[in-house]
Design a protein that fits this description.
The protein is an alpha+beta fold. The protein has helices at 26-36, 48-51, 102-116, 129-133, 174-184, 195-202, 258-269, 312-317, 370-377, 383-389, 397-406; strands spanning 9-11, 16-20, 55-61, 64-78, 81-93, 121-124, 138-139, 142-148, 163-168, 188-191, 215-221, 226-237, 245-255, 276-281, 298-303, 306-309, 328-335, 344-351, 354-359, 366-369, 392-394. A hairpin with a 2-residue loop joins β4 (64-78) and β5. The structure holds coenzyme A (COA). Coenzyme A binds at residues 36-37, 67, 91-93, 98-104, 126, 128, 130-131, 134.
Length: 419
Amino acid sequence: MTVPPHRAIIYPTMATEIRPISEDDLEATHFLLAYSFTGDRSQEGRLKHVESMGTALALYDDGQMAACLRIFPLQTFIHGASIPLGGISGVACLPEHRRKGYVGQLLRHSLAVMREQGQPLSSLYTPHFSLYRRYGWMAASNAVSYKFKPKEIAPVSAVRPEGHSYRITDEEWPAIADVYKRFAAHRNGYLNRDERWWKEATFRRIYESKRKLNDVAVWANGQGQPSGYIVYHSASEQPPDAPSIDQLYVEELIALDTNAYSGLLRYLLAHDVAARITWFGTVDEPLSLIVEEPDRISREILDGFMLRLVDLEKAFAARPAATAAPEGAFTIHISDPSAPWNQGVWRIESSGGQLAATKADGAADLSTDTAAFAAMYNGFLRPTEATRSGLAEASDPKAAALADRILATDYPPHPSDFF
Ligand SMILES: CC(C)(COP(=O)(O)OP(=O)(O)OC[C@H]1O[C@@H](n2cnc3c(N)ncnc32)[C@H](O)[C@@H]1OP(=O)(O)O)[C@@H](O)C(=O)NCCC(=O)NCCS
């Protein structure tokens, strides 16, 4: 996807310009990214598959590339809707140009680009939360890493499920895409993956430069129908002055029913040479409750994606209400200096199973900034908790309680895909 040249912005006084990256600049971009993320700067280290996966923008200082970012054109599921989302990645600035505000300029520019591309939401993964928070993204999901030794774990039920497992390669991705959709579409935060995403970001780790395949095993039930799968990879790790340790990492385990959950857990536990299994799962994963000794599974909360409302009105128009959300409305004042089209008082209404945001006048029931509101939009942050902690203000506590129920989600947001 390319950005029309008319969208280039020139800042005359600063001799800087923001424009889409052309073919000629791919090597400079590779150097900037490899340098900034301690990657392989040679040609072999180029992540060519990523280069063609989204819009890349750069800021040029006196004609030289100084900073860049990429926008993946993605879609995210919530309550059965698939909402376009700009996935921000590859954000970097050369060290001699850092702390001049260049990445800030690029991020603000990307908001106008995503809005024009019809992406009302944006998400990203980062270790620099406060940087993105300044521009309206907010931490809005958690995953849990479940760690255990396979030999120490026994399922509560001794009954062997009817069915069998078999491994597949990336060319067989449709075999699990249907299972995934049935599991993920009505949940919250899972990506609506296309063929390329399945091949480059699920069957392989997106930034793994050798493009090694993950292992993928399908569970077929007693009738031979796929009803679950597991994506994982193994690694032999060498601690200093100690024997190597085999580790197994589960990227995703999707099971549609008890039969699949039980079959895939047994398949996983059969990897008994692994000193440790690490499973990146949901915060509400029932795993520890279906084994004999839950305390043999250590659980650590991980930060997931940050979320931003790029176009507040369209984001609400696309978002179905939760199953038990009441009919009703509240008003909220949003401050959003980086995306002024979101700024002002909005009436958020739940009606007929759908949410809607319309511009309103006068004093609002609640007020907050766009970042905190993003975390309320996807159910990560309850409005009453936002007001309790100072992230929002309420002129009427009853309105905050109603907002809790209007913005509730059926499932907690899950960061299904790292990018
Ligand atoms: C992080 C990085 C992209 C910042 O780029 P930059 O051009 O220096 O950022 P800016 O100058 O535009 O900073 C914008 C604002 O964010 C703040 N900021 C910059 N880097 C920050 C960081 N690492 N953590 C928190 N805040 C940061 C700045 O202080 C500035 O705030 P201010 O306007 O209130 O002073 C750059 O240091 C870099 O390339 N690092 C290595 C690669 C990396 O970590 N990329 C991001 C991965 S998500």
